[in-house]
């Protein structure tokens, strides 16, 4: 059975546990471990992952592109690349308007153009901060004018791969145009990738398509699907994803989840409102053999599949057990 490369997003109730899971993923044969950004800082977590691993790639998946200045993001990338010995993938995404404005106090306007210019600025600093030469970018939304500055540490690389997260067609197209890779949303089926993403992405040689996947492995397939249902319910409660659910003939099922949410169920407690078909079509859930077959379905479409255990509405001990099963599956498939 041919499968894409296997990436992993480690979970932990503590940072120590998260790092231990990353080390185990490296030993199991994972190609890259990714540090998300929501409950922890992606660059800080990635630094810890880089320091505690040896050969596995390390990515920020994803760091918020607008919440930090391009200059600071570039310095973080240079530090992470040095710390990891050249293993960094800088994953960036915009986040949504409310998060940027209300959580981070940063402007939200023309996000596609802003991300384009942000990436250009980061690349200029990565390439030239050590030279002492002026660094200039005169964009419509992002400007750099750096004079009298020289970073006194030689960079390990003057080009660090940038992976962009994107859901909407314009952001997906931007990733294909300027990125070194693309990272999908957590619910991205092979059929959706083939029909809605790849035609807009138009990946070129060397470009890495990374599918993020909620993965629940259990000898009891019903238990696996029940574990993943909370993740599907969380996203189904958001109207932004209506097109995704409609594409999979799940519009009516999504409406049922939204009604449950409006009826008072919390976003993390919607698993019971999720129809089995939603889990089957949008997650990698089932027995080890079933999940392996679902991963194989991405062959020829994606270079890698990033696996992560479901967490929504689940106690830590259940998440821990699900993560252990993913790590065992990675080891089995990597032999």
UniProtKB/TrEMBL annotation:
<protein>
    <submittedName>
        <fullName>LLM class flavin-dependent oxidoreductase</fullName>
    </submittedName>
</protein>
<dbReference type="InterPro" id="IPR036661">
    <property type="entry name" value="Luciferase-like_sf"/>
</dbReference>
<dbReference type="Pfam" id="PF00296">
    <property type="entry name" value="Bac_luciferase"/>
</dbReference>
<feature type="domain" description="Luciferase-like">
    <location>
        <begin position="13"/>
        <end position="301"/>
    </location>
</feature>
<dbReference type="InterPro" id="IPR050564">
    <property type="entry name" value="F420-G6PD/mer"/>
</dbReference>
<dbReference type="InterPro" id="IPR011251">
    <property type="entry name" value="Luciferase-like_dom"/>
</dbReference>
<keyword id="KW-0560">Oxidoreductase</keyword>
């Amino acid at each position: 059975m041919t499968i894409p490369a296997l990436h992993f997003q480690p979970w932990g109730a503590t940072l120590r546990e998260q790092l231990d899971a990353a080390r185990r993923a490296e030993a199991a044969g994972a190609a890259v471990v990714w540090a998300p950004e929501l409950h922890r800082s992606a660059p800080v977590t990635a630094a810890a992952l880089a320091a505690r691993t040896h050969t596995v790639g390390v990515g920020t998946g994803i760091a918020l592109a607008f919440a930090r200045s391009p200059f600071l993001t570039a310095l973080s990338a240079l530090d992470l690349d040095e710390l990891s010995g050249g293993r960094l993938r800088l994953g960036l995404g915009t986040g949504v308007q409310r998060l940027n404005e209300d959580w981070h106090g940063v402007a939200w306007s023309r996000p596609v153009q802003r991300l384009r210019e942000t990436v250009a600025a980061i690349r200029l600093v990565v390439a030239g901060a050590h030279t002492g030469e002026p660094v200039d970018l005169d964009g419509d939304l992002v400007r750099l004018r750096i004079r009298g500055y020289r970073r006194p540490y030689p960079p390990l690389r003057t080009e660090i791969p940038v992976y962009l997260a994107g859901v909407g067609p314009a952001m997906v197209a931007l990733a294909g145009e300027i990125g070194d890779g693309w990272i999908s949303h957590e619910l991205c089926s092979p059929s959706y990738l083939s029909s809605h993403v790849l035609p807009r992405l138009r990946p070129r040689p060397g470009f890495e398509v990374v599918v993020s996947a909620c993965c629940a492995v259990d000898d009891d397939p019903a238990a696996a699907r029940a574990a993943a249902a909370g993740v599907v319910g969380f996203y189904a409660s958001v109207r932004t994803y209506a097109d995704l659910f409609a594409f999979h003939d799940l519009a009516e099922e999504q409406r049922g989840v939204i009604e449950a949410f409006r009826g008072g169920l919390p976003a993390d407690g919607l698993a019971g409102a999720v129809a089995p078909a939603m889990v089957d079509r949008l997650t990698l859930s089932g027995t080890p053999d079933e999940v392996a077959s679902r991963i194989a379905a991405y062959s020829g479409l994606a270079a890698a599949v990033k696996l992560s255990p479901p967490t929504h509405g689940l106690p830590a001990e259940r998440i821990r057990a699900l993560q252990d099963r993913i790590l065992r599956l990675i080891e089995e498939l990597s032999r």
